[in-house]
Amino acid sequence: MQKHTEIKDNCEICAKVSGCSTWLSCEICEKWFHTKCVNVSDDEYKVLQKLNNCHWFCKPCDNNIGRLIPTIGKLNERLTSLEHEMSQVKNEVKSEIAIKHIELETKMDQRFREIEDKIEVMQTETLLQIEHKKEQIENVMDQKFENTRIQWSDLASDLAGDDNNLTVAVDKRIENRMNTMAQELHTTQDLINNTRLLANEEREKEKRRNNIVLYRVPESTANLLKDRTVDDTRTVLKFFNDGLNAGVDEQDIIKIIRLGRFNSIQSNTTDGNPTLVRPLLVSFSSYSTKNLIMNSLYKLKSAGHQFKSFIVTHDMTELERTQCKEKVHEARLLSAADGSGEFKYVVRGQPGKMEVISIRNRQR
Q1: End position of a domain, from candidates 162, 184, 206
Q2: Are residues 253 and 351 part of one domain?
Q3: How far is it, in rounded angstroms, from Cα 237 to Cα 255?
Q4: What is the domain range of residue 222?
């Protein structure tokens, strides 16, 4: 209930300002009334003034509010019921999302374990192949030495009855045998070198297994290496989480380094030419995190403008890079030879297993 502090409204009943010093205001229509015009005694008025939560309505509004109260009550009940239903639906949706999330994580973990098991089997098979090659080489060498021993024994028998031609025969047999052994030694050396290269290649693959290489990632111009590394870490995490929605934490990353020597001039180009930046090597603590990033690259199409120019590749060995370049060259030759323009040729597949495939050109 308001107090009439300024006399500027006429009484709604008598249409006068004067005639009474006490006033009441209707809380619905906000019109003013003399207390005597609405039959409120001075004692009643004093009581109303003392009550903090007192509500007073004029007669027309009081009649209307009497009809509205039941409706408001029903609306409140309906609103309470709807809020309860919405709360139940939200809880059900949250439960379904949680279940789906758990199922997805379970499937991904199972898939990662299967991949890791396959890689472990491949490594075991490779080591067995190397051991088998080693045994083959040892067997060949043993056989060669045995054959040589037999031949020298035969030579001694042949020369035993011919003292006059002993020197000439020995020199000739020695020369022939030395030539043969030189060829056999060269073949054996090639086999050993190939086996060593195969073993080195497998070790390099294992070393790079959890790594990726990012190209066209803007490079910091900070003078200190630690400051540039902090900037690169911040950029990479933003790319993984905002661009690919992969949910990678800084703890998932072992190291982030730029490949090549830092040059403050090339990182601070002001002549209008594209800024030259060094490739960025990112090493993860687990293969599953690296695999998650590679499987999320399709999201680059809808990523922010600052990420669309980024290129992400596996950290390939020198042999894998050579094979990749050969496949890229093959794809370019096929694209140039295709006069229709209906297809474009691209390189797809894991390092060491890349193939050239044709894709229908969507621009036609």
Answers
A1: 206
A2: yes
A3: 12
A4: 211-360
Percent of the chain predicted with pLDDT > 70: 88
Where residue 275 falls among pLDDT bands split at 50, 70, 90? low
Domain assignment present for residue 56? The answer is no
Phi first, then psi, for residue 21 (nearest 5°) are: -95, -10
Clarify whether residues 175 and 216 are in a common domain.
Answer: no
Nearest to residue 242, comparing CAs of 186, 191, 290, 310?
310
- Mean per-residue pLDDT, 248-257: 91
For 283, the 3-state DSSP assignment is: strand
* Residue 34, burial from CB neighbour count under 10 angstroms (0-12, 13-18, 19+): buried
List Cβ neighbours of 249 (8 Å cut-off, separation of 6 or more).
none
Taking 60 as the threshold, does the pLDDT of residue 197 lie above it? yes
* Cα distances (angstroms) measured from residue 64 to each of 58, 59, 67, 69, 70: 10, 9, 5, 9, 11
Q: Angle, to 10 degrees, between the axis of helix 287-295 and the axis of helix 59-159?
A: 120
Greater model confidence, 230 or 270: 230
Quote the tokens at residue 19: 């005639």
What is the identity of the amino acid at 136?
Answer: Q
- 179 and 266 in a single domain? The answer is no
Per-residue pLDDT tens digits for 125-142: 888 888 888 888 888 888
Same domain, 231 and 156: no
- Report yes or no on 25 lying in a domain: no
pLDDT confidence of 269, banded at 50, 70, 90? very low
Q: How far apart are CA 214 and CA 249, in angstroms?
A: 18
Residues 192 and 329 in one domain: no
Quickly state the pLDDT bin for 166 (edges 50, 70, 90): low
pLDDT at residue number 236? 92
Is the domain of 239 the same as that of 339?
yes
Number of folded domains that form the chain: 2
Q: How far is CA 106 from CA 98, 100, 111, 274, in A?
A: 12, 10, 9, 44
Average pLDDT, the chain: 81
User: Does 135 share its domain with 181?
Assistant: yes
